[in-house]
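A further point concerns the way the authors explain their paired sequence and structure data. An entry of this sort, consisting of the sequence and the corresponding backbone structure tokens, reads as follows:
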Amino acid sequence: MAATCARIEHLSHRYGRTCALDDVSLSLPIGKVTVLLGPNGAGKTTLIKMMLGLVAVRHGRITVLGGRPNDRLVRQRIGAMLQIGGVPEKLTVCELIELFASFYPAPLPGAEVAQLAGIEALAERRFEHLSGGQRQKTLLALALVGRPQLLILDEPGNGLDPASRRELGAIIRDQAASGTSIVLCTHDLDEAARLADHIVIMNHGRMLTSGHPDTLSRAIPTRRIRCHTRLPVQALRGLPGCRQAEVSEQRAEVLVTDAPSFLRALLAADPHIDDLEVTGADLETAFLSLTQASREQAA
């Protein structure tokens, strides 16, 4: 059995009448970047809060780094960057790093973690005066200061410009290369493809599928194609790369995983197509397609 940094078994959770997690079971590999991918409301944030011991486990079981999430020795080995950080905003960046370092038995030196996160120039700035991107970088430094064995990042790229997002990606890959296990929550398909060793796809509190990015890329539609065609819907569904197809009055709408292969086959089958439009498939549409496919397989 492969080594794991966390194991989730039959985990369910509700907020009143709202089901946040519905019988989720998965294992997260050690020393890898695991991406929890899904739209808002998929259950990603609830899952990581339960992994951190911030939300009590009532139905199911979670084991993190071999122990319970709320065990002190387990929590000292985890670094976390959440969407709602809740740090003292009157403190300077340097003071925040010193404060968080005091929570861990063998923290990184403050100067080293500031350099790692690219915030050396912000050392004497109060947190309340930082921009959104500067706050994100500071929260990342606070997550790294304890030399975590498990690093949990919830939408860390929010508020960052493209250059800073690339720098963040490099930090994540460097941490994984050094042996740190990383759980990254995102709704960004491109970010998941760039960074992940393992992807878990979630929607409406359920795990739809999981696996290597190369495998899953063949299941997630990335392009929406619209056109007028004489082909019936069953013929469209049989073309390479098609995940979902509908036709109304010869106006087709197709979700595909491989747009070039699909378009070549479409043009070969119907050279007279017109009014062709190719756009990106939004994440919610992609996940609805996966949900529909899973229901059809179960039927």
Q: What stands out?
A: The domain at 4-216 is CATH 3.40.50.300 (Rossmann fold). The first helix runs from residue 44 to 51. The chain has eleven helices and 13 strands.
